[in-house]
Every structure is written in C-alpha cells, then in structure tokens.
Amino acid sequence: MRFSVPRSPSTSPERKTPLSQRRRASTFGLNSSSESDVDEVVDLESDSAGSVTGSSDSGSFCYGSENEVPLPSKQKNSPSHPSREQTQIEATIAAIRLRTRHHDPYEEWEREMKKDSLRAARKNYHDSEDRLFQYQNQRRIEEAKRLAAAFKQDESQLIQKLDGLRLQQQAREKSLREKLAERSERLWNRIEASIKLEEEKEQAKLDDQRRTKEKAEREQRDQEEKERQEEQRKIQEQEEARRMQEEEERKLQEEEEGAIQEAKEREERLKVEVVNRKAAGMTTSEEDWKEARKNLQLVKTQGTRVVKATPTLKPSWSSARRAITAKVGQLTNDSETINRVSSQLVGILVPTNGPLPPPVYTALLSALAKALVLQAETEITAEKRSAIPLAQVAFNCLEQLEGFSEVFFAKITQRIGPWAVPCPLPEKDFDGRPWKDNGEARHVQGFRQGEDGTLETQAQYSDRVKGVIRLYFSVLKITPSKAPLEKMFQLPRYWTWVARLLGSRTLLVTPVGAEVLFVALEVLGTDATVIWGYQFVKILRLIYDASTEGLGGGKVLGGTSPDGIAARARVKLEVEHIMKGGH
Fold first, then answer.
1. Hey, what CATH class is 283-487 in?
2. 434 in helix, strand or coil?
3. φ/ψ of residue 426, rounded to 5
4. pLDDT digits (tens, 9 = 90+) for 19-34
5. Strand, helix or coil for residue 502
6. Which residues have a Cβ under 8 Å from the Cβ of 362 and sit 6 or more positions away?
7. Which residues make beta-bridge pairs with 100?
8. Residues 576, 523: contact at Cβ < 8 Å?
9. Segment 301-348, tens digit of pLDDT
10. Keywords for this entry (predicted)?
C-alpha cells in the first residue's frame, strides 16, 4: 500500500514532472539522483532547525497536513527565492518527512503473516516427522514380533528334531549294551570253563596265594589305618597348638593395646604429680623400667661386646663365666654351702691378685646375674624352697659386689620384661625409639623363642616369670646386716610393687598378673602385714574384692582363661590365709 502527498503546482519548468515518474522515483528511496538536491536541502534544514521528533524506537509521529510542517529558518546569507518557489520547497520537504516517517499497517500485517506461515509450516513438518517416527516404530515392533514368532517356531522344530535324535541315540545305545552284554556273557562263560578245567590242579596254589594276598592286604590296611590315625592326631595337635597360639597372640595383643592405653592415661595423670614426686625422690614405673633398660644397654656396650671383640680379654672372661655357672649349679639349701658359694663367686669377680679390667668386670657381673636368673627360672619353678638359698647368694653378692644391683635388676627386667617394676610395656624404648614390630615388643616383654624358632607358650612364660619374681621377693625379704642395698632391692620396694600392680588394670586382667600377685603375697604377705599393719590390710581387702567381685567394667582378676581362674582362686585363698595369721 502506497501513500502520496498532494503537491502544489509548480510554475518552474524544471519541476513539472509527471506524477507517475515522481512516484516511481520516490518509493522511499531517498538516494535517487532526481532528489539529491532535495536531500541536501533536507539535511541542511535538519541541521539548522534540529529534529522535532524522536527516533522510531522512542515513538515517531507525523504531521496532520502540510500546513503543520514548520518552515525552515532562513540563514543570514541564504539566497533569496521567490515566495511561490519557497512554498513548494517547504511542501516537498514536508511530504518527504511524512513519507519517511510513515508506518504502513499492511507491511506490518504482511510480516506477521510470514511469521505465522513459517510457524505453521514448522508445526506441520514436526507433526509429519512424529507420524513418520511412530510409523517406523510400529513397523519395527511388528517386525520384532514376526521375528520372535519365527524364532520360536524354529526353536520348537529344533527341539523336536533333537528329541528325535536323542531317542535314536538311546535306542542305538540300548542295542549296543545288549550286544556287549551278550558278548561279555559268552566271554565269561569261556573263562569260567577254562578256570574250572584248571581248578583242581591250581587249587592249592590259588589258596596259598589268596591267603598270602589277604594277609598282605590286611596288614597294609592296618598300617594305613595306623598312619591315618597318627596323621589325624598330628593334625589335631597342630590345629590345637595353632588355635592356642592364636588365642595367646590375641590375648597378648589385647593386653598390649590395653597396656599402651593405660600407660598413656598414667602418663597424663602423673604429669600433674611430677613436681611433688621429684621433690620426694620418687620415680614412676616407666622411669624405673627405662633405667633398667638403659643399664642393660650399658652392660652390653661397655662389657660383653667389648670383651668378645678383644682377644686379650676374652679367654679370662670365658673361664670366669664357666666357673660362675658351675658354682651357681652346686648350690644347696644349707648355710655352709651358701656362704662357700657366695665367697667363691665374689672371689671370681674380685680376685686377690688385683682388680679385673672394667669391661671384664662388667661382663662377669652380667654373667653372674644371668646365671642366677636362669637358675631361678629352672629350679624355683620346679621347687619353691630352692628360692631361699639362691636369694641368699644373690643378696651376699649384692652386698659385696659394686654395681651388681643395677646389673642384676637389668637382667631380671630383660628376662621377664616389665613385671619386675611392674608396668605395662611402653610404646617406645628408653631412648625414644619405637619398636620395630610386634616380635620385638614381645621379646622386650620377656617372651623367648625355642630352639625350633617358635615362641614359648603363655604357660611357659608364666612359669618363668613366677620363678624370677619369687627370687626377687625372697631377696627383698632378707634383712641386711650392713648398709642397706640399692633402692630396687630394699623392702619398701615391695609396697611400691604391689601398689603399682593394683593400679594397673591391664596387668591384673592377665593370668600372669594374678600369678605374680599370688607369689608376692605368698613370699612377703604375712611380713608386710606385720610391717605396715592396717594400711596393708586395706590393700589385702582390695585384692580380695578383686578376686571375688572383679575389677569392674566386666573384667576379672586373671582373666577368664583356665590359668587365670586358677591363679585368682590361689590369690583369694592366700589373702584368707594371711588374714588368719599366716599359720
């Protein structure tokens, strides 16, 4: 749709252009050559007068008639024009402005119609695609059903054919079995006939062979049965030993974990008391254990290893060590033998012809301590009364040999672990080095390996610990005739030992803990009641409650193993025996 603006007739011959040509030349094309002059005029007019309307985006408007179009302001130096021609120019400018700012509803409708047509075409395209997809899916489903039906039909035909082949095979096998049975029957008939002909001649020989064969088979069966029973017995013993070993390892692991946890708690608890304890000259169980481990390391590095590495010192050390072992083995329970052996042992370490070199003296102290401890592990375990002479000899050596107290206690700690202190095994050694593995920790705890490399059982370990602890308490029981011994061999250590053991639930729940507690009560329980009176009776009351009512938290003294139950019963009876007067 096109619109035209009425134009005033122009008297100028240059502007008399037919209407059709003007319309063709001005279809909103402002760049045509015929209207270039007009454009220049419009541009000049726009620049001078300014735009009276906003952009098309901000809402354009048009004049209602040509009379409303404002006249351009005249320039000062503009040339003069005739009035009619000026009017036509202004009318032309107004018409151009109206045409350029005109909004055509038809064109807008045409654009919307194109968009609607495009949307309708797209919708029709998508609908046709959906119908096509549905049709294809339907065709696929029908094809799948057809193929499934065909497959099922082929399957049924194949099954029928296989059934037929199976029946044929069964019929053929039946025929072959019948023929084979007939052939076997004929063959056996011939064999039986041949045997019957030769039976009379070979009857005696066959009887002898049969009897010999039956006897050999019977002996072989008996031998196989014995071997089988023996193998089963060995397997059962190995399984029982393995089960007991695993149970002991599990208990040891639990004890070690509990000991570690209790050591941490004790360490935190004792941090608060460290000032008062140091002021009173007291030490903790961990400190005593570390001191013993440190002394043991010094004995090894400054004594035994030095002597073994020095050819000039090794012969004298070896001969003296053998003499010490022999003297300790000759010990009996009479005062004359005790005094004689003690003097001979002191004479070996302190000869009259001059003192021994320090490394040899230290190594011989270690050898003497080891001999006493080994004798306690073997003799005292078998016979309790053998602890008396051995303890007296050890006491005499402690009084006369300088430095023997530290070495002897270090050796006791080496053989039975921290039970001599007592305390749970710490997580680290005295020098702060953690244990390499569980095997090293058990070795430090006192467990020993046999000749075959296997770890000793819990019962063997418990017997060794009891023997050494009995020797230790028997030494504490002896009253010194001279100056008091070192603090670890003085009688007050008994009170400290019992108090530390009762303060460690981790040690009390083990069978070894109940066993050593019984040994402590049996050796020095009655004497402790006389020395400490009512205070020790309180301790006996705690021990009796622990043996009857338990330790709390579901734990009992000695644990729930048979050895622990037996040890708990002995502790209970010993407390009752002490409270009755020890008679």
1. mainly alpha
2. strand
3. -65, 165
4. 444 444 344 444 433 3
5. helix
6. 299, 302, 303, 304, 403, 407
7. none
8. no
9. 988 899 998 889 898 999 999 999 999 888 888 889 999 999 999 999
10. Coiled coil, mRNA transport, Nuclear pore complex, Nucleus, Protein transport, Translocation, Transport
